[in-house]
Amino acid sequence: MQAPAPATAFDTRTRILNLAEDLLLSRGFNAFSYQHIAKELAMKPAAIHYHYPGKEDLGVAIIRRQLMRLRKWRDLPRVTELTPPEQFEAFVDVYRGRAVTQRQVCFFGALAAEFQTLPEAMQQELRTLNVELTEWLASVLAAGRAANTLHYKGHPVSKAAQVLTTLAGALQVARVHDEQQCQRIIEQVRTELREPV
Amino acid sequence: MQAPAPATAFDTRTRILNLAEDLLLSRGFNAFSYQHIAKELAMKPAAIHYHYPGKEDLGVAIIRRQLMRLRKWRDLPRVTELTPPEQFEAFVDVYRGRAVTQRQVCFFGALAAEFQTLPEAMQQELRTLNVELTEWLASVLAAGRAANTLHYKGHPVSKAAQVLTTLAGALQVARVHDEQQCQRIIEQVRTELREPV
DNA sequence: TTGCTTACTTACTAGTAAGTAAGTAGCTTT
DNA sequence: AAAGCTACTTACTTACTAGTAAGTAAGCAA
């Protein structure tokens, strides 16, 4: 869940992946090409094909890495040891950072729009990523309600889906309008969850 | 705010617009071409250029028509005469229909992901559309709270932005996962607004 | 009936897309 | 020193992109 790594000081394979992730989040999958990457890395497009034979391989690698990041972050002692409200807060901070520092949306928001044009393998990876993310957040929300520190109606999974959906959309708002409106939406979600109904 | 018209029984200009809207909502702006449209309408790509010289013109026309639809719908007597909760309900129904009948997202969700790759004119139109939509919903929410029939915390504009964001995201969820999860998110939003806190 | 307009088609340009095959420089291994 | 591997480059193909210019058939208008 950390922010994308800088595109330097890594081996070529990783630098390609970093840059591709960057382009994916800022332009979408269909609007970046091997040429974009090659130019930025001062290489020829064919060199990208050497590391990632097809664009599909590159796309799958990007999503899969994000899934690994999620799992790693989620299982970090400094995260698992937090209380549910703190876990939620830490999670929201990731989105807040995205909106401020880069003009990037989250993976779900970036890929859902062009979902029907994506290779099957990418569609599957994205589904997995979203399911795991929803399940984790649902477990946080369930624990928070049990401890009477998070407050909401309905099933934890429904609420988790709603929150993720809203956060994804909030980042899109930040891009189309100003960042401030995005922050207001995030604050709205936070307040509603933390204050007793 | 009505669903897109069928692609037949109209003049060519409108049929192009209808089909382009369809393709935009289902595949994104960068993933459809004049060829797609031409093939479907059994014409040559150059014929599309005759009606819409550039893809930008086509894109702007799509968004602008949607803005006109919004204004028309919003000012319809049968809509203005409704109570705020009924207005909200009628509005949500539009999104519900989108999720069920087509696998289409809303304009905002479709275009936000590739926003940075869009022509300036399209970016501007999309901003206008979203501002007007947010302002209308905010006025409904404000009136509903004044009449004690809609319940929420925070500023009406913030809440409106949050609701729109969530609805946009919900349609994207419907596409990536099943339609049912989308319906659950919409229900969650409805319940929270209609039940006193 | 001549001329203009509408709504196209045909034929083209220039640019870009993903992807491939063959070659090569530099390093390592034996 | 020969062989092989890694990480590329060069040169190419095929397909598609937006867009344009010129031509044309049908209808209407004077």
UniProtKB/TrEMBL annotation, chains A, B:
DNA-binding region listed in the record: 33-52
SUPFAM superfamilies referenced in this protein's UniProt entry, alphabetically: Homeodomain-like, Tetracyclin repressor-like, C-terminal domain
UniProt keywords, alphabetically: DNA-binding, Transcription, Transcription regulation
UniProt key word Transcription: yes
Claim: Transcription regulation is one of the keywords in the record: yes
Domain HTH tetR-type: 10-70
A Pfam family matched in the record: TetR_C_13
Top-rank taxon, per record: Bacteria
Coiled-coil boundaries: none
Membrane-traversing stretches: none
Protein name per the record: TetR/AcrR family transcriptional regulator
